[in-house]
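This part of the workshop introduces the protein records we will be handling. A record pairs a protein's sequence with a compact description of its fold. Backbone structure tokens are a discrete shorthand for how the chain folds in space. The question running through the whole workshop is how a given chain folds. The record below serves as our worked example for the rest of this section.
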Amino acid sequence: MSETVDFGLTDDANARLASLLDELAAQIRAGELTRTEMLVRLSDGLYVIAEGDRDAVDQTTRIEILRALEPVLTEAGMTTLEPWEF
């Protein structure tokens, strides 16, 4: 899903964020996460990534995260996210 997305971060942070989003997408598709659980995991993971690249929590990055996750959330019948939620 997100491995071709460039979030404008360092190579390591970009790869870690892509991996996090892939993992969340798979769990959402499998019905393993509620929207709230997904938000907690996304937020926790994003702040760990931000320890190495502060831009990970930038508004621009959050908007790109929303674009990457929106199709998965829509498919699962979940409401889309807002940047301030995570």
